[in-house]
Amino acid sequence: MAAFVYILCALTSVVCAALLLRSSRRTPSRLLFWSGYSFIALALANILLFVDLVVIQERDLIILRNVFTLTGVTMLLYGLIWEGE
């Protein structure tokens, strides 16, 4: 059941990223751009969570997961603070 939730979270992040980036191309907005790339990083973190806890159980990928999560949150904060006029 946990694997299903991990996959569902990753798919949700990918769909959000696709919708934000598509909207960013139609209406050029820096906030949509940074939010879209933030969700790409968060989707990669969710995919790594699935790989870490379900596929490869011998190795610990927590540092790599946290790097992608921190990158995604940093991009989102940048977009919200400096580009969200």
Mean pLDDT across the residues is 92
The residue fraction in helices comes out at over 70%
* Rg from Cα: 14 Å
Determine the number of helices (DSSP H or I, runs of at least 4 residues): 3
SS-based class: mainly alpha
Distance between the termini: 42 Å
Give me the strand/helix succession. Answer: HHH
Q: How many beta-strand elements?
A: 0
User: Biggest sheet, in brief?
Assistant: none
Low-pLDDT windows of residues = none
Overview of the molecule:
- The protein is mainly α and 85 residues long.
- The protein has one domain.
- The chain contains three helices and no strands.
- It has helices spanning 2-26, 30-55, 62-81.
- Helix 1 (2-26) runs antiparallel to helix 2 (30-55).
- The N and C termini lie far apart (42 Å).
- The model has no long low-confidence stretch (mean pLDDT 92).
Output the keywords:
mainly alpha, about 80 residues, about 0% strand, elongated, single chain
Secondary structure layout plus pairing:
Layout: H1 2-26, H2 30-55, H3 62-81
Helix pairs in contact: 1-2, 2-3
